[in-house]
Specification:
This protein is α+β, with helices and mostly antiparallel strands. The protein is 31% helix and 19% strand. The chain has 3 helices and 4 strands. The model has no long low-confidence stretch (mean pLDDT 85).
Length: 127
Amino acid sequence: MNVKSHEEVWVKVNASVDRGIAPVVALLNEIDGLQTLDSCQGTPGEKPAHVYFHYGDWKCIGHFVFEVLAPKLALEASDIGTASVEVFNGSIPMGKLSFEPEATEVVASVLNVIVHERAGSRSKWLM
């Protein structure tokens, strides 16, 4: 039986990421409980930029991706990218934000609004 005997807390860790996607990763990491896992700045005209992340259980990540993130992205600039939730081999749900590299500034602007809407609140995005 694997029982944790110590309480875990969230700390932000410095990590090396592609310069072109750094503002997006930094803003996502300002959200309490959200853990970025993988990112790439993409290549204009060839490969989209992306960030994979964990954020709680199905209910929490689903609410954040489909009721907070995706609608705000659609309002600011439709057709710049996608927000989705994926599962691989029964793992915990993972969010994915994918967009054209040229849209990084717009995506960062949207995330900045989202982060500041929740400033001062330590709770996750739950209904």
